[in-house]
Amino acid sequence: MDQSATQQNPIVRTEDVPVLPDMPEWASFTAAARQAELDADRLRILTAASLQVDMSAQPWSPQLSAAGIALLQARQFEQARAGLLEGATVNCTEHRAAWHTMLRKPAPIEEVAIERARLLDFVQRLDTERRYRNILHIGIGGSDWGVRLAVGAFGYTGVWREIRFVANIDGHAIEGGIAGLDPHQTLVVIASKSFTTAETLENARRAIEWIRGAGIANPMQQVVAVTARPRIALEFGVPKAQIFPFWDWVGGRFSLWSSVGVSAALAVGDEVVAGMLAGANAMDEHFRTAPIEQNVPVQLALAGIVNRSVLQYASLNLSVYDSRLFYLVPYLQQLEMESLGKSVNLAGQPVGVPTGPAVWGMPGTDAQHTFYQWLHQGTDGAPVDFIACRHADHNWPDHHQQLLAHCLAQREALLRGKSYEQVRAEMRGSNEDSSYSDWLARHKVYPGGRPSNLIVMQRLTPYSLGALLAMYEHKIFVQALVWGINPFDQWGVELGKSLTKQIRKDWQSMSVGEPPAVPHDASTQYWLEAFLPGSGNTV
Q1: CA angle, corner 407, sides to 471 and 147, nearest 5?
Q2: Alpha carbon distance 137, 167 (integer Å)
Q3: In terms of Cα–Cα distance, which of 438, 415, 419 is closest to 428?
Q4: Whether 441 contacts 427, CB under 8 Å
Q5: How far separated are the first and last CA of the chain, in Å rounded?
Q6: Which residues pair with 52 in a beta bridge?
Q7: Residues 427-442: what's their mean pLDDT?
Q8: Strand 358-363 and strand 315-321: pairing?
Q9: Catalytically annotated residues
Q10: Which pLDDT tens digit goes with each residue over 282-338?
Q11: Distance set, CA 324 to CA 51, 130, 362, 377, 465 (Å)
Q12: What is the Cα–Cα distance from 534 to 301, expressed in whole angstroms?
C-alpha cells in the first residue's frame, strides 16, 4: 500500500461515536463490573505467543464477560481491529494509518521489505568490517526508549560495541555521552521521525562538532539518520546511503519496529531485532484471530477499563521481576500515557469517564523497598502488572527462586490482605498489654482485594519481549476504542514545544532591551528575567 492509500476516510465517522456514558452497553458493563467478584480461589490463565497471563486477581464474572463482548460489539471492535491491521486511517486527527504491525510481518509490503534489507545489509557490512567500536544513539521519547530497552535486555553481559544514549537537552547528557569515547571509532545515529526535534538536532550538532574537532575532515560520513523525512536529513548533511527512512504511518512510540532499531542491531545483533519482530508478529496474529474470551490484549483492556473507569483507580503500577527490563517501565509509560492521556472522544466531546491511568513502577525487588508500603496500605492503591520470567539466564538458581518467591508473595498479599482479626489472633500469647495489642494490630492490617495481573515469559528472549510489547500495544488500542478516543495522536505535547520557542524568542528580544512579544504570567515573567542569558540579573 502506498502512502496515499493511507489517506482514506477514517474507519468510523467521528460524529457517529457516541459518548460512552450514553451507551446502554456501558451501563450494563459497569453494573456487571460492580457486581463481579475478585475471587482469590478462581484460576484464570490465558496464553498468547509464548506468554502466560494470569488474570485470576481481577474482578470477573460470566455476566461481566458477556457485557464486555456486547460493549466491544457496540464499538464495532471487529471492524476497528481489521482497520488497524490492514492500514486504514485509524488516526483520524492526523489523517493517517497506524500500521506499525506491517513492520513486523515476515513478508511485508515492498517498500518495507526494501528498507529492511538495506538496514540488514548495512549492519552486516559494518559487523564484517568490524567498524566502529562505539555507537552514539541520539533520539528522545519513542526514538530512544525502545532501543534502550532492547540493549538493556540483551546486552547486559557486554557486547563488542559500546553504545551510549543521549536524549535530554541538558548539556550534561551530551557531555556524558561522548566522554571517554574515541571519535574516530564512533558512529552517530540520529533518530527523529520529523527530523525537526529540537533536543535531538541540538545534541546531534554537538556530536558532529566533537567528531570534527578530532581532525576528521568529513564527520558526516560517521552519521546515520533514521527518519520519516529523509529529505530534511539529506539537507542536514547526512549521506543518502546512510539515511534509513520509515513512514508517516508509524507513530513515534511504535517506531522500535522500524529502522529506529538500527542501533539495537549494531549493539546486540540483528538476530535480536529479528526475534523481537517475530514475537510481535505472533502477538499480532493472536490479537487478530483469538476469540474475545481468550484474546489476551482484549481481556487485559477490559480489565483495565474496569479498574480505571469503574473502580476509579487512578494509576497502573508495573512491577518487573527481571532487572534486565529496567527500561520496560518508561517504554510502557510513554506507550500508555501518550496514547490514552485524552479527555475528548473522536467527536470532540468530553469522554465522560476517567481514561488512561498514570503508569509508573520499577523492577522488583527494588520496588518493594520503595513504594510497596503505599501499594499495600495506602488509601488509594493501584492495580499492578507483575512481569516475570519462569527461567533465568544466570548460574545462581537460588537467586531466581527468591526473586519469584518475592513476586508471588507480593501479589498474594495485595490480593488476600490480612484482616484485623487475623493480626490480633497472631498477637495472642504475647506479653504486651491487651489494649496496646488492640491498637498496634490496627497498624498491621492489609486491606487486600487489590487487582493485579501476572505476566509470565518462559525466559527473556527477543521473541518473548517482542510479544510482550505488542500485547500492550493492542491492549491500549482496545481501551481507546471503548473510551472512544484516538490513541495515535499526541496533541498535548505541542503547546509546551511552541511556548519553548516563544520563550527563546523573548530572550532574544529582551537581550536588546525589547519587551517579550507576548505577555506571560507573573511567575514566568519573573524567571524570564532571572534566567536571561548574559544579563547577570540577580532577581
Answers
A1: 40
A2: 8
A3: 438
A4: yes
A5: 59
A6: 47, 456
A7: 86
A8: parallel
A9: 338, 369, 497
A10: 999 999 999 999 999 999 999 999 999 999 999 999 999 999 999 999 999 999 999
A11: 17, 27, 11, 29, 11
A12: 52
Is cis: bond before 365, omega within 30 of 0? yes
Q: What is the DSSP letter of 6?
A: G
Would you tell me how many other CB atoms lie within 10 Å of the CB of residue 516?
A: 17
Q: Is 352 left (phi over 0), alpha (psi -120 to 50) or beta?
A: left
Q: Tell which residue, 20, 5, 11, 194, has the closest CA to residue 91.
A: 11
Which string of DSSP letters, residue by residue, matches 97-165?
A: ---GGGGG-SS--HHHHHHHHHHHHHHHHHHHHT--SEEEEE--GGGTHHHHHHHHHHSTT--SSEEEE
Residue tagged 525537526 (cell numbers)? 196
Please state, in angstroms and rounded to a whole number, the distance separating the CA atoms of residues 166 and 184. 18
CB–CB of 167/139 below 8 Å?
A: yes
Place of cell 505476566: 455
Query: Which has the closest alpha carbon to 422: 444, 391, 452, 401?
Result: 444
The whole-angstrom separation of Cα 100 and Cα 109 is: 12
Contact (Cβ atoms closer than 8 angstroms) between residue 376 and residue 413 = yes
User: pLDDT tens digits, residue range 450-494?
Assistant: 999 999 999 999 999 999 999 999 999 999 999 999 999 999 999
- Residue 329: which of 177, 485, 469 has the closest Cα? 469
Q: What is the pLDDT of residue 14?
A: 62
7 — pLDDT class (breaks 50, 70, 90): very low
Helices 171-178 & 198-213 angle (0-180, nearest 10):
40
pLDDT of residue 433: 83
CA 350 to CA 21: how far, in whole Å?
10
Domains detected in the chain = 45-95+282-415+450-485 (3.40.50.10490), 105-268 (3.40.50.10490), 417-449 (no CATH)
Q: What is the sign of the dihedral through the CA atoms of 221, 223, 228 and 233?
A: negative
Half-sphere exposure of 486 (CA within 13 A, CB side): 26
Block residue for cell numbers 482497520: 83
- Whether 536 has a pLDDT exceeding 70, the answer reads no
All three cell numbers of 274, joined, read 529479528
DSSP state, 446?
A: B
**Which three cell numbers, joined as nine digits, stand for 423?**
493480626
